[in-house]
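Narrative of activities, Objective 1.

The group set out to show that a structural description can be obtained from nothing but a protein's sequence at a throughput compatible with the screening campaign. Below is one input-output pair from the validation batch, recorded exactly as produced.
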Amino acid sequence: MPYARIVTPGYVVICRLTKLSVVAVLIASVALMLVLTIGGWSELQGMKPLDFIWSVVYLVLAFYVWRWARGLLPIAAVLAVLLLAFAAIAALGLDGTSWSARGSVGYAPPQSLFGGAGLSTGALGALTVVLIGVEAILAVVAMVAFAQAWNIELEVPADQARAAG
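Output recorded for this entry:
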């Protein structure tokens, strides 16, 4: 049975924009992970299934955060920091070769998941750096949202809500 909220006449329910921010950054992370995975398929080293699992986990987190499950925010932040570490290792070449160095002589060009030409090594490197930034933003936004108790809806007079924008 769906939950029905009774609002006092003359009042409106407001919620914080932080919830939307967390969900948007989670979805942006999924999009970047899938572009990197599909566009650099032939160059990935065994993390292929994990990339898809991570994307599904982020989508599930986004769904439950959208439904006010505040307890998942620390989990989202931890996963963001872990993915940030993996992306930093890939972008900076801490494992031996960075995405950018794979464009030199002796390396095969990346192939996509669907058999065509994948993204260039420069594009893969740039997207990996962007992923680092997005994951840092996700970790910060998730922890700020957890700290500010955004899961609590507030009833305010309609006049006050209109005046506040």
